[in-house]
Design a protein that fits this description.
This protein is mainly alpha-helical and 164 residues long. 57% of the residues lie in helices and 0% in strands.
Length: 164
């Protein structure tokens, strides 16, 4: 199940990246304790445009977590669009981070039958699933179904949307 928890999963390397990116000199650097101690301060620091610029302009390998990468970039884009809800950004970043791992498409192990690599296999498995397994399968299919994200609409849907 996808949860809006990217901010809770930042790593020490992520905070080191923040300090290196936002510090102008060695005396300017803030301790990690200061960054982590106050959530409002941390959130306002995460909104700094230099973080998104540093991520976008770096052609090399960044030593940051995928959850930090997607949170900072999603936050940057949402703010430009006038959307300031941090929880929504956290959820979108969690979705992007989860979908960036191709091996996550397979049904979770808790469902009990490995080998459901296709959504159609998972839907067929629903017919034989216990109520708990059915819940897990439905949640998993919902998280990975393109229609849930309003992407990959069928041409018929796009045509009917244009007609209205």
């Amino acid at each position: 199940m996808i949860r809006a928890n990217c901010r809770a999963r930042f790593t020490a390397a992520d905070f080191d990246f923040i300090v290196r990116t936002l510090s102008r000199s060695c005396t300017d650097q803030v301790s990690l304790v200061d960054l982590l101690s106050d959530s409002e301060t941390r959130d306002s620091i995460l909104d700094h445009p230099r973080l998104a610029d540093a991520i976008l302009c770096n052609a090399g390998h960044l030593h940051i977590s995928s959850q930090f990468y997607f949170y900072v970039l999603a936050r940057h884009v949402l703010q430009q669009a006038g959307i300031v809800d941090r929880k929504l950004c956290d959820y979108i970043a969690s979705l992007l981070e989860t979908f960036s791992r191709a091996n996550r498409l397979q049904a979770p192990d808790e469902i009990g039958s490995p080998g459901h690599a296709y959504i159609s296999d998972m839907l067929i498995a629903l017919t034989r699933a216990t109520p708990e397994q059915a819940f897990l399968l439905r949640a998993h299919v919902g998280n990975y179904s393109p229609d849930e994200l309003s992407i990959g609409r069928r041409p018929r849907d796009r045509a009917s949307m244009r007609a209205h």
